[in-house]
Amino acid sequence: MNTDLSRIEPFEIAFIRPPTENQSLAFRLTRNCYWNHCTFCPVYKFSPRFSKRTFEEIQNDIQQAAALDRLLDAQMDWDADLFPKSGGALYQKAAQLIQQINSARQAGGREPSPADPPDPSVTDDPVLSWFLQWVKETPTIEDAVNHLLFWRMAGKKHCFLGDADALILKPELMAAVITEIKTYFPSIERFTVYGRTATAARLRRLDELQAYRQAGLDRVHFGIESGSDRVLKFVKKGETRTDHIEGCQKTKSAGLSCSVYVMPGLGGMTWSGEHAKETASVLTEIEPDYIRLRSLEIFPQTPLARARDNGDFTEADEDQVVEEIRTLVSEIQGHTMLLSDSASNLLDINGRLPADRETMLARIDAYLNMPERERRLYSLQSRINAFEGQYGGLSEDLYDALSPYIKGGRLDLEKIPNHEAERITKHIRAKLMP
Fold this sequence. Notes:
Helix content is 46%, strand content 11%. The chain has helices spanning 55-75, 87-107, 126-132, 141-153, 171-184, 197-203, 206-215, 229-234, 241-253, 272-286, 303-309, 318-331, 357-368, 372-391, 396-402, 418-429; strands spanning 25-28, 30-31, 51-52, 158-162, 190-195, 219-225, 257-262, 290-293, 336-339, 351-353, 406-407, 410-411.
């Protein structure tokens, strides 16, 4: 292959995407979020302003990704017995390719692709610094190569098109982008996007949503968060329960799969019951293909954090959040799949409604019936497992916090006092990607 490595560039990656799309090939059709008023969301509060990308910009990214993918394909023996069992060998070869590209760029008078400069507004906050290191406006060659590697290891079948609401784009652009991606990446079988229910309900006609489906789009992920108009107004979601119902029903009518996210805890202690019941009511009306639980985590420097600190919002404790999930499982009618696929959740509650309702309720009640001490230790162990699953091991600060309770390489939870267990649990939760 006679590729000039000095001309290789990284492509922009949609880093914020649903957990089910973590290993999807992810291109950006827009940058960031045009709404960006949700009080609970930290994602785009520290990013540049929203912008739409031109087809030429997106096309260039697709072609740069394809050039990198060809190099990655040539670098590795994808049919060897070691794949996909020996990830270490693949990562090592990917690292060699990254070094070759950066060396060629430097030899050609071009510096290695720069990383994002640190944001002075968040560098002094360890939680935000940790969170935002995974969200990059300017990916490096290393980011791009590893992104393609993960996609290949996952089977090369899925693609996510970001950022926050692709439904604001004309179906003609969506069709052109998907056609271009299929040209260079013919193995892709599923295309998904984030959407806002208000966009689907108010901006897009049914025939336009059908045009997305005809273009090759398969699924829309909606963050509906709550079915309570009072809660939606308080958190400045910019949408109503009517938007949620009409937008999702119209999306389903267009032949698109509908996946919705709800946020247990978002009503705080004040509106906890209303939040759960009204959300169950909306989900019954929608009957989406998937309901995904994403329990509230309040991030520093968000408007919701300020509301909590000012006494305008009282955070629901973990047991109350579990009670809300119990209400959802009990009261949602219709046929749908309920999934706990976010690291923010305490319990793994997964199943099909109504068939698995009793099994899920039994798991919830088993937790609620534990003595308080057992619930606290269960919460800590659950979050340790989530962190290790998400990042591959404990970070140095978490290991230091747990080290007094590690004997012979094993963590002895029984030695941890309740107050310390709660403190470490909160620390871990703040570092989990939702």
